Amino acid sequence: VATPPVNSKLPPTLISFAVAPIEADKVVSAEWKQAGSKLVVLPAACGEDGLPDFAALEARWNLVAKLTGAKKILSAGVLREGGLALALSRMSFGNWLGCRLADTLAATPSALFDWNPGALLLETTDAAAIDELLAAGGFIAGETTTESVITVGSVKLPLEALLAAWEAPLAKIF
What we know:
- By secondary structure, the chain is of the alpha+beta class.
- The chain contains five helices and seven strands, in the order βαβαβαβαβββα.
- The longest helix has 16 residues, at 54-69.
- It is globular.
């Protein structure tokens, strides 16, 4: 284990990674690619007891792999801590594209922060892919826009302010 210099501004860090071999042309990144795309959330499949339904989860992920391989998914991101709100922000930052959320999400903004490990946020323009994702339990979260804001009902959250808030905890370190 290497020890950083005493005057280093880097905090102690554990770095780990996993490797899953796949052909590069079957991989998509998380940043949104274009305005006018539909944003579809494919929730993690859980049983009535709240535990993962691994067979259903595998079927959903296989569907996403099939659609991605067929070039029907433009970008994909995971929902983790921070829920859909964080995923929307992170995916917006890449190409500075905003989004307008569906009215159902605007009506229940607390749902934006629900924790759903294993869920995916997907960007697509393909109507057949949207139909397949909806049939698999997905829902339309909104649509990408050229405006650099995340719009939730009548509230507009500028990406510049969201990025500053996201980076603020690291400002003292870097």
